[in-house]
Amino acid sequence: xxxxxxxxxxxxxxxxxxxxxxxxxxxxxxxxxxxxxxxxxxxxxxxxxxxxxxxxxxxxxxxxxxxxxxxxxxxxxxxxxxxxxxxxxxxxxxxxxxxxxxxxxxxxxxxxxxxxxxxxxxxxxxxxxxxxxxxxxxxxxxxxxxxxxxxxxxxxxxxxxxxxxxxxxxxxxxxxxxxxxxxxxxxxxxxxxxxxxxxxxxxxxxxxxxxxxxxxxxxxxxxxxxxxxxxxxxxxxxxxxxxxxxxxxxxxxxxxxxxxxxxxxxxxxxxxxxxxxxxxxxxxxxxxxxxxxxxxxxxxxxxxxxxxxxxxxxxxxxxxxxxxxxxxxxxxxxxxxxxxxxxxxxxxxxxxxxxxxxxxxxxxxxxxxxxxxxxxxxxxxxxxxxxxxxxxxxxxxxxxxxxxxxxxxxxxxxxxxxxxxxxxxxxxxxxxxxxxxxxxxxxxxxxxxxxxxxxxxxxxxxxxxxxxxxxxxxxxxxxxxxxxxxxxxxxxxxxxxxxxxxxxxxxxxxxxxxxxxxxxxxxxxxxxxxxxxxxxxxxxxxxxxxxxxxxxxxxxxxxxxxxxxxxxxxxxxxxxxxxxxxxxxxxxxxxxxxxxxxxxxxxxxxxxxxxxxxxxxxxxxxxxxxxxxxxxxxxxxxxxxxxxxxxxxxxxxxxxxxxxxxxxxxxxxxxxxxxxxxx
Length: 679
Description:
The chain is mainly alpha-helical. The protein has 4 domains: 1-200 and 216-260, no CATH class; 263-530; 587-627, no CATH class; 633-678. It is 68% helix and 4% strand. The protein contains 28 helices and 5 strands. The chain has helices at 2-18, 27-56, 80-99, 103-106, 109-127, 131-149, 158-187, 203-218, 227-233, 236-246, 248-261, 266-289, 293-321, 324-359, 370-373, 375-388, 395-407, 416-448, 462-465, 467-485, 487-502, 528-550, 578-581, 583-588, 590-593, 629-635, 639-652, 657-678, and strands at 61-68, 72-78, 596-601, 612-613, 620-625. Strand 1 (61-68) and strand 2 (72-78) form a beta hairpin. Helix 1 packs antiparallel against helix 5 (109-127), helix 13 runs antiparallel to helix 18 and helix 14 (324-359) crosses helix 21. It starts with a helix and ends with a helix.
């Protein structure tokens, strides 16, 4: 069934690519072909969910394409861990493909081909049984990112974002090729399960290269700079696929690497802990002050990559010190956050797509009271924002609680470096969760529920009124809320998937009934399910008591003129703007955000800068702007060196065939020397 699903993705991509719009007479046929392509992709996703569910139940699949006894079998294999990620990844892919059936998705037929290519590549990576298949799927995934990000030629910044996505995808692939090659040479096999069979002096190098390759794809610092512009530049229906589906291939790679290679070096574990904490706080800091809805959601992906990486790093600590309980709690926390991120990020991008299609802008200062104009998109922004903020009754509350509980276990580790790094990571993640509340209060309170501006633009309701958009929104919102209500069942599913890695210690995550605990008994406990009963009951009780004791006065509304300033009749809109609400964060985190204030010529295009002028009517304005510290101090100084290397490489492209043959001969000799040296 896995092969059938991948073939359906391939057919969907071919149909979408061949659906040309040469003239007006072919437009109807092109729309039908695009709708067919999106539908086939959704069908393939459903089949992969079934495959994953069967693997979780103990019925895996294996497909051998080629077998060579010394090197192992080349093909596909679905075990419990793969099944878990298939269910998570393609569970959120189905609503994303449904969004493509709106008029905006079918009007661009080849967009469905790019989306199908993303699904094909992710499925191939997750089901790969050997290094060759994994690298083939990974290269295909990088190519699909390039096509998706660079698809919309009219979007500002599209070219730069596509080049960044392609460049970092190639870097990630090169790291995986080098790391996998080192481990394959050491183990004499390309089967993923055999790469750690014979640990040796090169294992640490292979371990580091593989983790680095997967970390680039998920957006951990310092390889995060491609992610925000890439997600912002991608067309609306595809953003949810990239952020909620494709990124899970990187997280799966991290989980599988830990499964195959086992105990990592102490220094590597410390590096992952620190990078995860820095990624979390840097991502949420930029999300909290970003002036654009797409940028806010994209930077939140960097934050979530850090939080997920923190849970994974705890599992690495457990492998380092030989504690299966730490491995279990780390993987449980990380996987729950993967589920939260996949559902909430897909929901936010689906809703942002409807808002952008309806109002023609994603400027947060121009988006007020979205729920009044677009109720389904507003519902998505509210539920997705509350989920990523970690509010009770959402999946984010349970996953972030488990992550903090996992990081609090540093006292069980006997090595001081690991204790200190876990403590630092825990502090940064706790700070991140606090800032995320402010970031998404801005989104929910002002963008979703704020008072609309009197001069608001006329809205187009095609996406909002589409059955596919409404169905996708309701499905993703149900996942965000349902995971919390059924948290013990979800934890049981995750525990079954990671049981081959840690054994039966995952049973300690369930304290009986509907209560969760961080694997270690009598440490702490939480029941997200009971909160779904207690919190609504207290709200209802409060309302009933207020009505009983206040009588008719409870329903009386006292209206008065809102206070605007110290002078009566002062003009201007009452209340915060989205930009003004984020000013305290710009001040408090000025060192991290590199906040700067200056007078400059006002840009006519607000998308060219993350800053917002204070006086739009003047030629000069007071501007507050922020900068990514990693980009400023790491990548910009490297640009002259990169340009020099590119200039030197151009000289090698002489156009002479004999020169190219000489290059190939030199490369072949180098490969032979390396192979002889390693064997």
